[in-house]
């Protein structure tokens, strides 16, 4: 029987990377709602991300998105982040908003556009060199909307060429993380639509090319934890983009739609040694807080991950293995569900207090006055968003 006291050492290792863009305005193609207190600058985004870490101890790094987070001096930005108790993390390239990329970026039929997309990623590597970031994350919106629109086979060759040129520019302690998504904004085919395609390109590139699994990027009903188990077994699960969805890439608060799925995913991460083993998968959030306040939305998210990780760590793996080996279907399922049904909220409150953190980070944040302060201070300027 695994008790909460048995898992605290492992639970302390939980580190979740928050996305800078979660603190800016975001929305859907129908409307992007502004809200008081939204950051106007990259530094204000980092200050808000640092608040999430301050109240929870769970979010020590902030992912950047280029050009949304363009600044003149990234070394100075890294120092600013450090002064606020966090560090700069993954650098996300963006080849999905420039008009030149309407018909694709790395897979565009025009070699000049492909060149531009490669160069943008090389520029992102320069940012990484300045910030000390390890991961370059590439998500391509590339694809087509109609059969016959493009040669889907040749696009794979162009993609491989571009990725190889980018990969060659990485230093030995940097990684290329290739994210897949089954549809949207392309609707007929996407050039990196699934884990297999990402894996094939990463395997061709080398050891420091790995897959990013965004939990919102699968068709409904996909067994995501199987993909996790497979990629971990192949040594190619680089990172997650955690969020939750009811229908598509909804980018909702992770765990909000299906905490059981998040639990099952973390069981496979832990079982495969990708949680606190030698090469852990990076646990990132990729969410948009369209109608809820952003900092509380991020607090809710990291706390949801912490709760499911705690439950997954409580899984009695020895008893489970015995029941599995014995073919005892119901016993194995019951052992699995016992861990999921374990309410760890009281234990987590004590865990936090023992580490000088508020027992209830959300309540502490709401009482702190930070939200009121930023809403009062951040008047004027242009609120940050997806641009
Ligand atoms: C969008 C994409 C993808 C990517 C993110 C940041 O769907 O998830 O990781 O933007 O670039 O959400
Ligand atoms: Mn993502």
Automatic annotation (TrEMBL):
One of its GO terms (molecular function) is L-rhamnose isomerase activity. Its EC number is 5.3.1.14. InterPro entries: L-rhamnose_isomerase (IPR050337), Rhamnose_iso-rel (IPR013457), Xyl_isomerase-like_sf (IPR036237). GO terms for biological process: L-lyxose metabolic process; rhamnose catabolic process. Keywords: Isomerase, Manganese, Metal-binding. PANTHER family: L-RHAMNOSE ISOMERASE. NCBIfam families: RhaI_grampos (TIGR02635). This is L-rhamnose isomerase. It comes from Nocardioides islandensis.
